[in-house]
Structure formats: C-alpha cells, structure tokens
Prior knowledge:
The complex is a heterodimer. Chain A is mainly alpha-helical. Chain A has a domain at 100-323: MetI-like fold (Orthogonal Bundle), CATH 1.10.3720.10. Chain A is 68% helix and 0% strand. The two termini of chain A are 31 Å apart. Chain B has a five-stranded mixed beta sheet. In chain B, strand 1, helix 2 and strand 2 form a beta-alpha-beta unit. Classes of the chains: A mainly alpha, B alpha/beta.
Amino acid sequence: MTAATATPTSNKPATPGAKKPRRPRPSGWWLPYALLAPAVVFELVIHVIPMFTGIWMSFLKLTKAFIANWGKAPVTGIKNYSVALDFNGAVGAALLQSFLITCAFTVLVVGISWILGMAAAVALQKEFWGRGFIRTLFLVPYALPMYAGIIAWKFMLQKDTGAVNHFIFDNLGIGGDKPFWLIGNNAFAAVVVVAIWRLWPFAFLMLMAGLQSIPHDVYEASAVDGAKPFRQWRSITLPMVRPVNMVLILVMFLWTFNDFNTPFVLFGNAQPPAGDLISFHIYNASFLTWNFGSGAAMSVLLLLFLLLVSGIYLSVLNRRSHRA
Amino acid sequence: MKIRTLAATAAIAALALTTAGCGGGNNASSPSGSSGGGSITYWASNQGTSLDNDKQVLTPQLEKFTQQTGIKVNLEVIGWNDLQTRIQTAVTSGQAPDVVNIGNTWAASLQSTQAFMPFDDAAMTAIGGKDKFVKTAMDTGGAPGQDPTSVPLYGLAYGLYYNKAMFSTAGLKPPTTWEELVTDAKKLTSGDKYGFALAAGSYTENAHFAFIDAAQNGAELFDGDGKPTFNSDGVVNGIKRYLDLMQTDKLVNIANAQYDNGTKAVNDFATGKVAMILNQNNADSSIVANGMKSSAYGVVPFPAPEGSASDVASHVAGINLSIFDNSKNKDAALKFVKFMTSPETQTALDKPFSSLPVLNGATPNFTDNPEEAKTFADIYATKSKPLPLVPAEDQFESTVGKAMNQMFAKIASGGTVSTDDIHNAMKTAEQQVAAAG
C-alpha cells in the first residue's frame, strides 16, 4: 500500500511531443524503499500470508486423512461454514454457546478492568508520598509472566487446598460447603476474575499516561468556579482522555475476545462449558479432532465478527468526533 | 478521515487474525529434525515416575545401542499432556523425529494420517518378525487388514488395586463382582476415608472406562461401517454405572472430579486415603515411590456386574513404537526398533517402567509380587479387549471422555445426571464425531 502511493513521483506521464528530458532520479531514491522493505516482508510473512492460508484452509476438507499432504485435501466449498453455522447441529450449537459466553465474558472483563484502571489512575493522579511504590505494585500482574500468574490462580482456586476457599470458609468462617471454582458453573466467575486481574493494570497504565497530559490549570480554574471532584472528572478528565479511551477499549476488547491463555492454563485440556471461551473452543475443535478446515472456518467467522464490531466502533466514534 | 478509518480497520483485521491465528492455528514447535548420518531422534513417552526418571532409565540402553551400531540417538522425553499435540504438530509440519512412542489406542487414528511408515513384510523381518510379539499386543498396531504402522513396546492393563490391611480390618475379601465392589467400598467409606478414588477429571481415563463398562454390557462403540454408536443403551448404562460410584453410591470423594491424571488417585491410594483404585500396572512405580510396599496391596481384575455379557476387565493398553514416514534414516530407525523390542532391552525396561511383556515367551518381571504379576498377565492375555481400531477412535476419547468430565463436574457440584442426560450427551458426541469425519 505504501509503495503504491510513493511511486508517482518518479515518472510523471510523459506527454508525447514534449521534449522535456526525463528528470534524473535523485541519488538515494531507493533509500525509503530499502528502509520499508523489511517491514513489508515481515508484514507479509507474519500477517498477510498466514491470514490468506487460514482463509484458504477454511474451504478444504483438511482432516487427519490429508494433514500429512495438504495438497491432496479436497475442496469442500462452504461446507465447513454451514456446519459451523448450523445452530441445530451439535457443532454449531456448541460454537454459538461459546460465542455467547465469550460476549458476556468480554463485556464484564473490559468493563470492570476499565473502571478499576480509571479509579486507580485518578487516585494516583496527585503527587503524594509512596505514589511510585503503589504504581509499581499495581503493575505487578501485568509484569508477571502470564503462565506463572495464571498457574498461581489455578492453585488458589482448588477446592480443598486452595487459598480462596481457605480464606472464605476457614478464615472468615462462612458456613457451608466449599465450592469448586474450576469445574461446573463457577468456572465462569473464576475465568472472569483471573482475566480482570491480568488486564486491569494495562488499562491503569494507559489511563495514567493519558492523565499526565492534562494540564493542572484546567483543574485549578474549575476548582475556582466551585467544581467538585466528580464534576471535574466528568467534565475535564473524561473528555481530555477520550482519544486514549477510544483506542484502549478497542484493544482491550480484541485481546479479551481472543483470550486463549487464561482458559488454557486455568482449565487444561478439558474446559468446563461455563468457561468455554471462543479461541479455546476453536483450538479444541480443530486440534482435538484434527479437523483443521473446520477450525479455520470458525476462525474466519470470528475474524469477520471482530472486523464488523471494530469497523462500527471506529466509524461511529469518528463521526461523533467530527460533529464535536 | 475516511481513509484513515479504512486503514485502521485493515490494521485491526490483521491484528485480530493474528491473535485468532494463535488460537486456531498451527504453532509449529522447534524442529528436532532428523539430521543425516549416524544419528536418529527419538521421542519417548513418560513411563517412569518423572521425565527425568525416564531419561535415567533409557540413557544406558541408548548408549548400549550406540555401542552396538554406531548410531547416535537424540532422546527427548515428552509428558502425556503434550505428546498428542507434539505428534500432531510433527505430522502437520513434517518436522518430525525418526522414532516416536505412541499410546497404542491412537494407532489406527495416526495410521490414517499416512504420516507413519507401514511395517510391511520387509520391515517386519528387519525388526525380527511379527511373530515375536504377543498377538494381543500386535493387534493394536493399526487397523485390521492393513500393514500396521506401529509395533508394541510396553504392555499395560487395568487392574483393581486394593489395600490389604484395610480389607482385612473390615473382614472383607477382594470383590469378584461389581455388586460386591460397591458393598465393600461402602463399608470402607467413613469420615475422610473413601472406598474408591477415580481420575474423574481425566478425559482419557473416563473414556477408557466408558469403553470397558460398555464392553461388559456387550455394547460396541462403532458399528461395522465405523459409525459411532455411543447412544446405545449398553454404552449409556455402562457410563451411568461408572458415574454412580460418585453419584448414588457416594464411594468417591467429590474432589476427585478435579483429578486430571491417574497419579493423583494413585497417591491417595498409596497414602492410605482410599481402599481401592482402578489403574494400569504402571501404578506400581508411583505406589512404591510413595512408600507403600508391594506386599501391602493386592490386585484383582476389574469386576463386571453379576450375569453381564462379558467379563472384560481392561482395554489392551500399552505403548507402541512408530517410525515417521518422512524419516531419512529408516534403516537406522528400524535397527533401533529392533533393539528396543529385543528380549534384553525389554527385560531391562519392564521393571523400571512397570510394564507387561509384549514378546512371546517372556515372563512378567515388573513386580516382585508374583501373585500380582500373574493377575496382570492373565488380565492382559484373556480379559482385555482392544479399543475400536477405527480412525475415529481418538475422537471417541475426546468427545465421550470430555462429556463424562462434565457429568462428574455436575455431580460434584451438587447436580444429578440422569440416564436421559447421558443419552443426550452421547447423541451430541455422535454428531461431533460425524461432523469431524
């Protein structure tokens, strides 16, 4: 794309008859291309080629009988898609359920992470003793290696030996049976909590950076006019960090919707239906059954959905910023 | 602004697909490629008490092989949680080792990928002939009527382990029918002691017992055309019987619903928390490692209900050896397979890995308890039935096994699973298998 827009400078359409000699290329004309080339190559290798391979795979009957030799896999047209979208069949119904759970999961995780991140960022906006330490503390979940963090949660959420049940039932002395957290319906709550724990420091980090750029004078001026903190937050902070928020929420949405590591590490190979997030579901659908064509079709459907949501999100927000 | 929106959308598309790609795609692991010359790569499964233990046991044998043939062996031991994925990745990417251990129940499924070398007559002769193997074991090498793509390495079978002291204190004899098993276990369940421990969170273990219980009921999992028949009464009742150990009989601690591998149940048994477990004979090494003497427990065949159609007590379990078809060192690989299945190596490995002999005429030496050795040899030879040798077998394990995980989870968290629920779950599993085919 970049190359196409850059070319016209070199050769203007030479009109016939005009004797004007072709302008010699300035020395070093190739430098921008050379500098761009690695990025273009890597973009192709890492993003574009796998993307098209995935789309191509989704039209193949790529089961275990053909996996050793992809070239022989017969084309099935849209069969993989029709199976995935047949919500009366077992495969489609499971995909739909996983999709709905993922939607609920995403709304909760992104929403609560944003609220926590915003609250913490606002609380730490003013200078006070120990601010640096608390900031660092808040960022620990984000800095921790993902697997180490989630594995620790997995131990904490065990029924008989886990810290969570020990704290609630033994230390606080609440009666009743200790529940399972990683199987059955509680699995949803467990995966949501762990995902929030992992995500909110990122929201905190971004919002904190956004808040730094708001000048103090604005707050002081509003304080002179008698604005209370909440009014200041609503009328100054929110509008001023709007660009940050726009990107932040989109990125958090995409990450959370595609979250694979949290359920994979938390639940292992056998995920409970309540914690059956869609990336993990697709992985299971293709890896455990060796049906990579079907898995690719589901991935493409997921892509289309995310594209649609992102497109609507961006166009709505951009239009609004025009009007403003 | 419009162009920028478009560009942003495109960038997001790329971002989204890469992340989606991570989920569904093929993360080729680093190739342990087969370098030419005098060396081969061997992926061993985890048979001992730990991956390191496997390495320690195998290394002297591999050194012996290098001495004899001059071929160097690069060993990697892979845990059971990763082995299937690693093999799949190897098949998909073509970056494969030369020789690999497989769970013998996967033999027919892996055979259908055509990524493994068929042992035709010439290859069989090169490793010492088909007839050196026990027939039961050899039958698991692949689908009937085709050249097998794997040969047996270690033999395993399920047995019912019981704690002798707990049984004699309660004045009980080891059970010979399912009904006796349940009444005995009830007497042994009190306080924090349970009659039974199950790996109820392991889908492979669950699938094995779906098969064994169904076989006791005389039911088959696949019909003659290879179509799944999970929803038949025999299969469903078999599963119900297994679930009821926890659900209605309450002989099993509900915490077992989170036991995602057999070792956890074995540890409960070895530390005296439960009176009985169902496990393959490789439990021995873990039991002894936990400090329980081999004279303190006994083993009987897993009993069927009174008057049932068959007294199948196990599937023909075990580990097979396969050679990847794209190996550049097939001669060296064949020599290695011959070495691993030679009587000397087998005798040396059966003891540390607690496995049954797969060679004709060999005597079991995995335990110093002759009674136990005899029981397991008898179960393996006369009371074992191979899992269906059809390409969809692995899908039976994942669909039915995982459905059973959910059923145990439901029971453990206070719900009930009725026969109708099982029927519905099996219907779904059948559809999933059909859709995958």
